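Workshop exercise sheet. Pairs work together: one partner reads the sequence aloud, the other fills in the structure field after running the prediction. Swap roles for the next sheet.
Pair: D.N. / O.F.
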Amino acid sequence: MIEHLPAILTTLLFVLHWVILIGLTLRIILKRRATGVSLAWLLLITSVPYAGAVVYLLVGELWLPRRRIQKALLSREELQDVVASIEDRWELRDDQLPDLARGLNAQSNVPLGLSALGGNRVQLFSECDPCLAAMIEDIDQAQLCVNMLYYIWQSPGAVAGVEEALVRAARRGVRCRLLLDSAGCRGFMQSTRALEMRRAGVEIVEALPVGKLRIQLKRIDIRNHRKIVAIDHRIGYTGSMNMADPRYFNVGKGVGQWIDVMARVEGPAAKVLDITMALDWSIEDTRHESESTRDLLESIRQAAPVEAAGEIAAQIVPSGPDQAALLIHQMLITLIYNSRKRLVITTPYFIPGEAMLQAITSAAHRGVRVTLVVPSKIDSVLVRHASKAYFDDLLRAGVEIFEFGGGLLHSKIVTADDDVAMLGSVNMDKRSFSINFEISMFVYNKGFLDELRALQEAYIRDSRRVELRNWGERALHDRVLQNAIQLLAPIL
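Structure field:
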C-alpha cells in the first residue's frame, strides 16, 4: 500500500484539479459577466492550477454582506429629506447647463437622488502643502464637526499638522471623526499616533476591516478609495490626494513623489460630500454606532440650510459595489462619446475595458483631439505593462499619449471641450469602475475647466510624447510581455 501512495496522491490531485476546474468554470459561465472578465478568470484558473482557484475564491466575485447593503439603504432613507431639500433649492434645469453636461446630469442622480447643483465655490490645489495648510485653517475654525474619509493615512511630514489640528479641535469640543480604509491605513491604525489621537477625543473607525479571520469571509480587495473632508456641514474637500506627505510617502518605490490634485468646495456640493461621508460612517461604525452615528445623522438634519457660496455648477457622484453598478464608467463613456473638440484624460492607472477603449478611439477618429497623460513610472509592475499594451490601438487612432516624468502622476482628471471637468478618486480601470467605493466631482464651469486644463498642460510640458513610429520599434520581449499581461487586464 505504501509503495502505491504517490500514485494515489497524484490521482487524487488530478481528480481534485478537474473537479475544481469544472466547478469554477460552470460558476463563471453562470455569472454572465463581461466576456473579457470571464475569459481572463478562465485563463488564470486553468493555467495556474489550485493557486488560480484560490485567487478566484478570494477576489473573483463581487460580494458584500446583505447586512451591510441593508444598512446602507436605511441610512440613505434617514437623510432623504435633507437630500430632497438640497435638490428643491439648488437643482439646475437642463437649460442652465452646457449641452455636454445634460446627459451626465440625467445619469448621475441615481445613488443619492441628486443632479447638478448651483451655488458652489470650488478652489483648486495642485500641491500638498497649500492644501493641507487650508485644511488646517478650516479645522482650527471648526465649531461643530470635522469628518474625514481616506484610503491612505500616514503621519510623517505635513500630515502631522493636520493631526495636531484635529487634536486641538477635539479638545475644544468639536466632534472629530476619521473613517480610514482598513487595508490602506493599517500602519497608521496600529500606531501610537492613532492611540494618542483617540485619547484626545478623535474617533477613528476602520472601513471594510480586513483581519486574519475576515480574509476567509469577505472579499478583501473591495476598498473604500474615497478622499473626503467635511467640516461643519458647509466645507468639503475631495480629489486624488491621500493623507500622506509626498516627500515621505513610498520613497523607496523609485517612482518619485506622488503628484495629486484636490478641491476645496463650499455650497450645496460640499453638503453632498458631507452626506456621503456620513453614510459611509453609519455603515462602518459598528463599535459605537448607536451614539456616534445618531449624533452625526441628526447633526446633518439639524444643520442650517445650505447657502450659496459662489456661481459654479457641480455634481458629486459617489460610486461603489452597493450603489448603481458601473455608474461612473457609464458617465465617462457618455462624456467621451459626446465630446466634440478636445478631450484630455489624466490618470495613473490606465486599463480601459473594451467599451472605454472603443469610446476613446472613436472620439479620435471623428476628429476630437484626444490626449492621454499617464506617469512614466508607477508602483504596479502588472498595471504598467498592461497599460502599455493599449498604446498601439490609441496611437493608431490618433490619440496623443504623454508619459509624465516628474514623479508618479496620481491626479485623476478629465476635461472635455470647454464645458465639463471631472476630478476625484477614480482611476481608469476596472477596480475603480466596479469594485472600489469612489467619489467623483463633475464641474460645469469654464473658468474652473480652464484652471484644470492649464494644470494638465503643465503635466504635458513635463512629459515625453510617445510617438507611433518609435513605439512600434520597441523590443519584441516588451511587446510579448505587455500583450500577455493585457490578457489579465479585465481582472487587474
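Discussion prompt: The CA atoms of residues 372 and 401 lie 5 Å apart. What would you look at next?
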